[in-house]
Amino acid sequence: MSALDAGASSGPVSDAAHPRRAVDRLLAGNAWLVFAFLYAPILVLVVLSFNSNRIVGVWQEPTLRWYRDLLQDQAVLRSLKNSLIVAAVSTTVATVLGTAAALSLERFRYRGQRLFDGLLYLPVIIPDVTMAVMMLLFFVQAFDLILIATGTSPNLGLGTISLSHIAFNISFVAIVVRARLAGLDRSLEEAAADLYASSWQAFRRVTLPLIAPGVLGGALLALTLSLDDVVITSFVSGPGSTTLPVYVFGLVRRGVTPLINAVSVVMLVGSMLLVIASLIVQRQRND
After folding, report:
1. What DSSP designation does 239 have?
2. pTM
3. What is the CATH number of the domain that holds 271?
4. In whole angstroms, how far apart are CA 212 and each of 91, 189, 207, 286?
5. pLDDT of residue 11
6. What is the DSSP string of 5-39?
7. Three-state secondary structure call for residue 51
């Protein structure tokens, strides 16, 4: 009798397990579909960058020709140099200013703080085209004033591109650092003050090490956005200041070639190396 009861009791459990298994399989299949949707185009891009045929969609044989041409193409190297200069300058300045903005909003109270808090999110929510037109008009007006005051006028170039990237990167850095500050225990800073540490000492020895992952994450995000930007950069760039994404966009308009695939793969590998370096640094800090 007990065996029959055990068999009867195991029946509903077994029946209930089947829907769960079906749901697990469905979720697993959905995950694989998402991964395929995201990474299959990247895999195709990498494979076709080694195609010896100039017609991208027709595979002929593997070759490194396009990567050799990439290293010998002065226009590509010049645009890559411009991109690295702009990214380095804009990331450094935006990280400092964005971290300072996050600290001011999270640790201090002052008149106009809510207005500043709202304005800080504008570069994140407004379209890139709108931001590009705003920056272009700003530089045109500023150059006119400089011309009136000095008799000479600057030109659009790496300086205007760097300022534009700083303008929209500050918001992204501030958002990431504020998220880190929101979860920070303020009693640690208060303990440092109780031990007679000055405000600067408490920030340098307590606050900054604790928010360093957020600062690093914001800097990495700013660097990636700067290296990938096309719309804003194309509006505020001048002769001789073309960055790599803008140059690639110009090539695409004339047709996709394996050289464009090779450039894209180089940019992809660079971005992956930045992410890996960030993960290694964060893991070392946690250890």
Report:
1. T
2. 0.79
3. 1.10.3720.10
4. 15, 15, 8, 11
5. 54
6. HHHHHHHHHHHHHHHHHHHHHHHHHHHHHHHHHHH
7. strand
Q: Residue 82: which of 200, 237, 285 has the closest Cα?
A: 237
pLDDT for the residue numbered 93: 95
Please state, in angstroms and rounded to a whole number, the distance separating the CA atoms of residues 271 and 22.
Answer: 38
What confidence score (pLDDT) does residue 92 get? 94
* Residue 47 within a domain: no
Q: 68 lies in a domain?
A: no
Report helix angle 74-107 to 113-120, nearest 10: 150
- Cα angle 149-154-157, degrees, rounded to a multiple of 5: 160
CA distance 38 to 221: 19
The letter for the amino acid at 143 is F
Look at the chain and report how many structural domains it folds into.
1
* Domain boundaries, position 202: 73-286
Q: Are 233 and 164 in contact (CB under 8 A)?
A: yes
261: in domain: yes
Q: How far apart are CA 232 and CA 164, in angstroms?
A: 7
Could you state, in chain order, the average pLDDT of each consecutive group of 10 residues for the chain (287 residues)?
Answer: 50 60 83 88 84 76 84 86 92 93 84 83 87 91 88 87 93 89 74 73 79 86 87 89 86 75 83 75 61
Element (H, E) at 283: helix 258-286
Identify whether 192 is part of a domain: yes
Identity of the residue numbered 5? D
